[in-house]
C-alpha cells in the first residue's frame, strides 16, 4: 500500500515537472526540447522631415507600412511645415536624436529630408540656401553620428506644377546642396528629387494630379490639360470638410486638400516605392529588410 502511494506521488511530480496535469491529460510527449529564442538582430529607421514625409500628407508612413519588414522598427517623425531651422528650434530634432540613441538595436538609420519649408518665406521657417541650409544639414549629420546612428540624406520630393508641359522643379537647386553635403561628408544619399521629378514629368500635368490628397476641380484639371497648372488655391478653399466626430471618440483632424505638393494614398505608395528602391541601393546592409 505504501509502495503504491509512493509510485502515485512520483508520477504526479513527473507530470508537474513537464507542465502537464493529470486532469487535462496534456503531456510533452512528442515535443522537441524547449530552448530559448534567439535575440533579434533588429535595425531601426527614424524618418525626419516635413509634410511630404509626415503621416497623411507624405510618403513615409506608407514606406514603413508596406516596404519595411517587421525585423526593422520604422518611426515616422516627419512634421508638416518644418524646415531644418524650425524642426530644431521647436525641439523635434531633440526627439529624433533621443530615438537615435535608444539601445538594443543592431543599427539605427536616420533618414533626413528637408527643403520645402526652407524655401518658404515664413519667418520661423526660411533658411538661406547657399550657406545656412547646407550648414544645418551638416550639423544634423554630425549629431546623428555622435548619437551612434547612421545618417542618410534625401533630396526633397518634387512638387508637381507644370509650365508648358515641363515640370517646374524649383527644388532642384536645394537638392544640389543636399547632394554636396552627402558627398563632402560621405553620407548615403537617396536622390528622391531626381527620381520623383522623372516620374512626374513622364506622367504629365493631368495624370500627376491623381497623386494629390483629393481630386482637383474642373478648372484646375482643364488648365492642366493645356500643359500649365494653375497656382494652388488657398488651403481654406482647397481643403475637404473635416471628418465628423463624436464627443467620446477620436477628434483629431488631418487637413486634406488638393495641391501640387502633398500626397494621397496613390502618391504616397508611388514615392515610398522609389525610396525603398533607392535606399536599398544606397545602404546595402538594409537590402534584406526593405521590400519592393
Task: Quickly list its features.
RhgT-like, 39% helix, SGNH_hydro, disordered N terminus, Lysophospholipase, Rossmann fold, 5-stranded parallel sheet, single chain, alpha/beta, 292 residues, signal
General description of the model:
- InterPro entries: RhgT-like, SGNH_hydro, SGNH_hydro_sf.
- Residues 1-22 form the signal peptide.
- With 292 residues, this protein is α/β, with parallel strands linked by helices.
- The protein has a domain at 43-161 and 168-193 and 264-289: SGNH hydrolase (Rossmann fold).
- Helices cover 39% and strands 10% of the residues.
- It is built from ten helices and seven strands.
- Strand 3, helix 5 (132-146) and strand 4 (150-154) form a beta-alpha-beta unit.
- Helix 5 (132-146) crosses helix 6 (172-185).
- The longest helix is centred in the C-terminal third of the chain and has 18 residues, at 265-282.
- The relative contact order is 0.13.
Amino acid at each position: 500500500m505504501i509502495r503504491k502511494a509512493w509510485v502515485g506521488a512520483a508520477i504526479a511530480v513527473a507530470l508537474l515537472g513537464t507542465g502537464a496535469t493529470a486532469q487535462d491529460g496534456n503531456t510533452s510527449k512528442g515535443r522537441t526540447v524547449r530552448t530559448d529564442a534567439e535575440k533579434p538582430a533588429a535595425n531601426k529607421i527614424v524618418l525626419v522631415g516635413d509634410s511630404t514625409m509626415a503621416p497623411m500628407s507624405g510618403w513615409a508612413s506608407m514606406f514603413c507600412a508596406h516596404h519595411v519588414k517587421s525585423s526593422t522598427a520604422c518611426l515616422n517623425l516627419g512634421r508638416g511645415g518644418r524646415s531644418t531651422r524650425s524642426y530644431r528650434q521647436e525641439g523635434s530634432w531633440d526627439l529624433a536624436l533621443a530615438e537615435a540613441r535608444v539601445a538594443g538595436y543592431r543599427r539605427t538609420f536616420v533618414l533626413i529630408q528637408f527643403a520645402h519649408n526652407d524655401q518658404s518665406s515664413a519667418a520661423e521657417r526660411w533658411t538661406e540656401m547657399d550657406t545656412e541650409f547646407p550648414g544645418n544639414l551638416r550639423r544634423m549629420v554630425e549629431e546623428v553620428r555622435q548619437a551612434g546612428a547612421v545618417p542618410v540624406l534625401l533630396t526633397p520630393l518634387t512638387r508637381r506644377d507644370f509650365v508648358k508641359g515641363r515640370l517646374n522643379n524649383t527644388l532642384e537647386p536645394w537638392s544640389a546642396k543636399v547632394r554636396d553635403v552627402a558627398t563632402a561628408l560621405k553620407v548615403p544619399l537617396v536622390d528622391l528629387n531626381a527620381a520623383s521629378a522623372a516620374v512626374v514629368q513622364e506622367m504629365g500635368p493631368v495624370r500627376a494630379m491623381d497623386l494629390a490628397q483629393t481630386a482637383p476641380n474642373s478648372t484646375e484639371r482643364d488648365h492642366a490639360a493645356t500643359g500649365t497648372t494653375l497656382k494652388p488655391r488657398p488651403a481654406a478653399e482647397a481643403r475637404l470638410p473635416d471628418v465628423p466626430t463624436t464627443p467620446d471618440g477620436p477628434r483629431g483632424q488631418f487637413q486634406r486638400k488638393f495641391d501640387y505638393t502633398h500626397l494621397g494614398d496613390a502618391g504616397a505608395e508611388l514615392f515610398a516605392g522609389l525610396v525603398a528602391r533607392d535606399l536599398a541601393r544606397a545602404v546595402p546592409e538594409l537590402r534584406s529588410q526593405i521590400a519592393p
